[in-house]
Write a structure and sequence with these properties.
By secondary structure, the chain is an alpha+beta fold. The protein is about 50% helix and about 20% strand. Helix 1 runs antiparallel to helix 3. It is elongated and about 80 Å long. The protein starts with a helix and ends with a helix.
Length: about 150
């Protein structure tokens, strides 16, 4: 694998982890949202990662990817709603309370969301380190050739 393909791989992982962090931030921001345009409380969102062929759209990128079939990038296939049912809390003064005084809140655990966010941030940092190491190898290779 060439060094530029390594940059592409880490770049795709950076993009996927950034999107994951955005989904987690959205979950945290909507932890108390009891009414959505779709009706009912907000549904926690989760990302699904998958591998993606490395390389870009140019012929050289496609040729390089075909040469080394095992090189894969990272992409988010889809963002799915968590099927966990809403949490019912008794609050008869809430505007969304039902006839018995219960309100349906999203099933979002702030601790789980923080752990997911820390995982995304750590994965992002690791990929930044991989990019920096690859850039350093490219610089050293150019220095040897000059």
């Amino acid at each position: 694998m060439n060094l530029f393909a390594m940059l592409d791989l880490s770049g795709s992982a950076l993009t996927a982890e950034r999107e994951r962090a955005e989904v987690v931030a959205s979950n945290m921001a909507n932890a108390e949202t009891t009414r959505t345009p779709q009706g009912g409380p907000y549904k926690r969102q989760e990302v699904v990662f998958s591998s993606a062929p490395a390389g870009g759209d140019s012929f050289a990128d496609q040729l390089s990817a075909a040469w080394d079939e095992n090189v894969q990038g990272v992409k988010i296939t889809q963002v799915v709603s968590d099927p966990t049912p809403a949490v019912r809390r008794y609050d008869p003064s809430h505007p969304d309370a039902d006839s018995q005084g219960f309100v349906a809140f999203p099933a979002i655990n702030p601790i789980e969301e923080m752990v997911d966010l820390m995982g995304a941030a750590r994965a992002y940092q690791l990929n930044v380190s991989a990019i920096q190491s690859t850039k350093q190898m490219i610089k050293e290779s150019l220095a040897i050739l000059s």
